[in-house]
UniProtKB/TrEMBL annotation:
Source organism, top-level taxon: Bacteria
Gene Ontology terms: biological process: DNA integration; DNA recombination
Family, as annotated: Belongs to the 'phage' integrase family.
InterPro entries in alphabetical order: DNA_brk_join_enz (IPR011010), Integrase-like_cat_sf (IPR013762), Integrase_catalytic (IPR002104), Integrase_recombinase_N (IPR010998), Tyrosine_recombinase_XerCD (IPR050090)
Keywords, sorted A to Z: DNA recombination, DNA-binding
Protein name: Phage integrase family
Coiled-coil intervals: none
Gene Ontology terms, MF aspect: DNA binding
Phylogenetic classification of the source organism: Bacteria, Pseudomonadati, Verrucomicrobiota, Verrucomicrobiia, Verrucomicrobiales
Organism: Akkermansia glycaniphila
Residues of the Tyr recombinase domain: 167-331
């Protein structure tokens, strides 16, 4: 009959472990068993077995991870419901990070620290605005990794968000607006004239205008409808078509001219032909907001028409009425 000692010897030898190592491991486990459980050999054995199983699971979880480049790709693929342009932006940030810091591609997500992530952002993005967007992208990658249990926490959340100091965007004057409208009436620019009207008198963003369909502009009911899937923020809204815009659209037709190929090139050409060598991003949207405030004095209404979540952004970023007069703002919406 085989003794317990002989049976244990066979187990240890078949495992390839040395006796002293096996004994040391058992004693380490035994040290963590409470005194009252040690009184029963069977209870002690079951507790030590449970500790081994829990430790094995914890070890599996700790080391179950993916590389940063893999998680970037998987997190982008998980957002197939987002617009093509949004996914293109995400892929741009992924490529830029991996091109600037190639050694980060194979880093296990679980092993990456806040310091390492901060270094990646610093080497990749060189302005506060770029850094802020890059931080948001990298944070979304780690957030996806946390949900998949490939890392325990999101280290990017501990990285400070840089302050982006926005420069003043002056709304266009009535004379500048007239220059744009006069040039848009030329034959070579007539195809994008409806887009100009929608950006100017309805505050629609350029990329939102490009996604509009004919049925989204309802002259009979007097509204422009920006569907959630077409808006920048993912929220739908409707903007009134006021008299100046109504007449402009009736004059220049209602086909989906703003969806034609080469739209961006034609829009740049129109601005240049109107004498705008420098053009600030979204200046037409800022013009709409500033004229709207003086004309209607209703920030909540403007908030809805702009599609913002609060009026605070309007106060701090969009509204600039220092050089405007109330009468010309009324004329802007009524009989431009």
């Amino acid at each position: 009959m085989i003794s317990d000692y002989q049976l244990a010897q066979r187990f240890v030898e078949s495992s390839g472990m040395r006796w002293c190592d096996a004994v040391r491991l058992v004693l380490d486990l035994y040290d963590h068993v409470p005194e009252n459980v040690r009184r029963s050999a069977d209870a002690c054995f079951l507790r030590m077995k449970e500790m081994v199983e829990l430790g094995a699971e914890a070890h599996r979880v700790r080391h179950a991870t993916r590389s940063l480049s893999e998680v970037m790709e998987l997190s982008i693929s998980a957002r197939l419901h987002r617009r093509f342009a949004t996914r293109s932006d995400l892929r741009y940030f992924a490529r830029r990070i991996l091109r600037s810091v190639p050694e980060a591609a194979g880093r296990p997500l679980r092993a990456m620290s806040t310091r390492e992530c901060r270094g990646i952002l610093t080497r990749t993005f060189h302005t506060p605005a770029q850094y802020r967007k890059g931080r948001a992208f990298l944070s979304s990658v780690f957030a996806y990794g946390v949900r998949q249990e490939w890392c325990e926490e999101n280290p990017v959340l501990r990285i400070e968000v840089p302050v982006v100091r926005e420069g003043e965007i002056r709304p266009l004057s009535m004379a500048e607006i007239r220059r744009l409208l006069d040039v848009a009436g030329r034959a070579e620019f007539r195809a994008i004239a409806p887009a100009l009207g929608l950006m100017l008198w309805a505050g629609i963003r350029p990329n939102e205008v490009r996604r509009l369909q004919a049925e989204d502009v309802d002259l009979r009911r007097g509204f422009v409808y920006v569907k959630p899937r077409h808006s920048k923020t993912g929220g739908g809204r409707q903007v009134p078509i006021r008299p100046a815009l109504q007449r402009w659209l009736q004059k220049h037709g209602m086909p989906c001219a703003w969806s034609l190929s080469g739209w961006s090139r034609r829009w740049r050409s129109l601005r240049a032909a109107a004498g705008f060598e420098q053009w600030q991003q979204d200046v037409l949207r800022h013009t709409f907001a500033s004229y709207h405030v003086l004309c209607f004095a209703d920030l909540p209404m403007l908030q809805l028409e702009m599609g913002h979540r609060s009026v605070e952004l309007l106060r701090t970023r969009y509204v600039n009425v220092l050089r405007l007069r109330r009468e010309e703002c009324r004329r802007f919406f009524e009989c431009m």
